[in-house]
C-alpha cells in the first residue's frame, strides 16, 4: 500500500528565509504532484514531476524528485507572506493510478 | 479553462437529513473523485468513479453513497446526515490513463458542510 508522508506538518518562517518541505513515499511511482491550498479555498496544481532528477521552478518555489530515494522536496527561497498556504504532495499509485496525498504542510510566513 | 464546479460553497443541514452534493466538470474527464478534508487528517477519499455508472469505494465510504448517471456529473449523497460529517468536501476529476504531464487532478472550489 502506497503511503505518502510530508514533513514538517507545520512551518513558521520569517520573510526572506529559505526552507524545504519533504515528501517521502513508500513504493515506486512515476508521477509526483505538488498542490497549494489557500485558507478556505480548494487545491491548485503547482508542479508535476515525472522522472528521476526532475526539477521544476516557479518564482520562489522549486520542486525536485529523487525516485531512487522516493523523495521529493519543495524548496522555498526568500519567503514572502504571499506564500503562506498549505502545500500538499501527491503520488500516483493508488487503485486505477489514483493519487495518494500527504497530510499537507501548513506554511506561515511572518514579517 | 478546465473547470470543476461544485454547486454549493456552504451548506447547513440538520441531523438525519438526506444531503446531495453536486459536482460537474466540463473537461470530458472519465475519472471523478469525492474527498473530505478535516484539520490534521488531510484529504481522505470517500468514493471515486472511473466511468458512467461505475463507482468504487475509497478509504471512508461509510455513511455516503454516490451517483454517476452522466459523465460530467458526480453526486455525493449523505443518506442521513450526522454531525461527524461536518467537513469540507472536495470534488476532483482527471482524464483516465493520462500519462506524462497529465494525470493530475483538477479540484472544485469545495463545499463546506455543517450538520447541526
Fold blueprint:
The complex is a heterodimer of chains A (111) and B (116).
Chain A: E1 4-7, E2 10-14, E3 19-25, E4 32-37, E5 43-49, E6 55-58, E7 61-66, E8 71-76, E9 85-92, E10 99-101, E11 105-110
Parallel strand pairs in A: 2-11
Antiparallel strand pairs in A: 1-3, 3-8, 4-5, 4-9, 6-7, 7-8, 9-10, 9-11
Chain B: E1 4-6, E2 10-13, E3 19-25, E4 31-38, E5 42-49, E6 56-57, E7 64-70, E8 73-78, E9 87-94, E10 106-107, E11 111-115
Parallel strand pairs in B: 2-11
Antiparallel strand pairs in B: 1-3, 3-8, 4-5, 4-9, 5-6, 7-8, 9-10, 9-11
In short:
The complex is a heterodimer of chains A (111) and B (116). With 111 residues, chain A is mainly beta.
Q: How would you characterize the overall build of this protein?
A:
- The complex is a heterodimer of chains A (111) and B (116).
- Chain A is mainly β and 111 residues long.
- Chain A has no helices and eleven strands.
- Chain A has strands at residues 4-7, 10-14, 19-25, 32-37, 43-49, 55-58, 61-66, 71-76, 85-92, 99-101, 105-110.
- In chain A, the strands form two sheets. In chain A, strands 2, 4, 5, 9, 10 and 11 form a six-stranded mixed sheet that branches. In chain A, strands 1-3-8-7-6 form a five-stranded antiparallel sheet, with no helix packed on it.
- In chain A, a hairpin with a 5-residue loop joins β4 (32-37) and β5.
- The radius of gyration of chain A is 13 Å and the shape is globular.
- The mean pLDDT of chain A is 92.
- Chain B contains no helices and eleven strands.
- In chain B, strands 2, 4, 5, 6, 9, 10 and 11 form a seven-stranded mixed sheet that branches. In chain B, strands 1-3-8-7 form a four-stranded antiparallel sheet, with no helix packed on it.
- In chain B, a hairpin with a 3-residue loop joins β4 and β5 (42-49).
- Chain B has 116 residues and is mainly β.
- Chain B has strands spanning 4-6, 10-13, 19-25, 31-38, 42-49, 56-57, 64-70, 73-78, 87-94, 106-107, 111-115.
- At the A-B interface, β5 and β9 of A face β5 and β10 of B.
Amino acid at each position: 500500500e502506497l503511503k505518502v508522508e510530508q514533513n514538517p506538518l507545520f512551518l513558521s518562517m520569517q520573510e526572506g528565509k529559505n526552507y524545504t518541505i519533504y515528501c517521502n513515499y513508500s513504493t515506486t511511482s512515476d508521477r509526483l504532484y505538488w498542490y497549494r491550498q489557500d485558507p478556505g479555498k480548494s487545491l491548485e496544481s503547482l508542479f508535476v514531476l515525472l522522472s528521476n532528477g526532475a526539477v521544476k521552478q516557479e518564482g520562489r518555489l522549486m520542486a525536485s524528485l529523487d525516485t531512487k530515494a522516493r523523495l521529493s522536496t519543495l524548496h522555498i527561497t526568500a519567503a514572502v507572506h504571499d506564500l503562506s498556504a498549505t502545500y500538499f504532495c501527491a503520488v500516483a499509485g493508488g487503485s486505477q493510478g489514483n493519487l495518494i496525498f500527504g497530510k499537507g504542510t501548513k506554511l506561515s510566513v511572518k514579517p | 479553462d478546465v473547470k470543476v464546479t461544485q454547486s454549493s460553497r456552504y451548506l447547513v443541514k440538520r441531523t438525519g437529513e438526506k444531503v446531495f452534493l453536486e459536482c460537474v466538470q466540463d473537461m470530458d474527464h472519465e475519472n471523478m473523485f469525492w474527498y473530505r478534508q478535516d484539520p490534521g487528517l488531510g484529504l481522505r477519499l470517500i468514493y471515486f468513479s472511473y466511468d458512467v455508472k461505475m463507482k468504487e469505494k475509497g478509504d471512508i465510504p461509510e455513511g455516503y453513497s454516490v451517483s454517476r448517471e452522466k459523465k460530467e456529473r458526480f453526486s455525493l449523497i449523505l443518506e442521513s446526515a450526522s454531525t461527524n460529517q461536518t467537513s469540507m468536501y472536495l470534488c476532483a476529476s482527471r482524464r483516465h490513463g493520462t500519462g506524462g504531464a497529465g494525470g493530475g487532478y483538477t479540484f472544485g472550489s469545495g463545499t463546506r458542510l455543517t450538520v447541526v
